[in-house]
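User: Could you go from structure to sequence for me? I need the amino acid at each position, not a summary. Structure tokens:
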């Protein structure tokens, strides 16, 4: 699916696991999430990460 698993973690709290993944773009993650979620065996929450430098640049441009 063009998604690379960078790391996997078991966590304590409202979630059981956190997977850090990389993909060429958000659309690729969207497709992978929909395909995995459609199986009904997993609930997926996506949180796209932006490098802090890009984030600061984006908010300064406004």
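Assistant: Here is the amino acid at each position, in order:
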């Amino acid at each position: 699916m063009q998604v690379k698993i960078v790391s996997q973690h078991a966590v304590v709290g409202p979630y059981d696991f956190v997977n850090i993944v990389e993909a060429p773009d958000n659309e690729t993650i969207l497709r992978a999430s929909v395909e995995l979620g459609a199986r009904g065996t997993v609930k997926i929450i996506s949180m796209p990460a932006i490098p802090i430098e890009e984030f600061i640049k984006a908010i300064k441009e406004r």
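One structural detail worth keeping in mind: Residues 4-60 form one domain.
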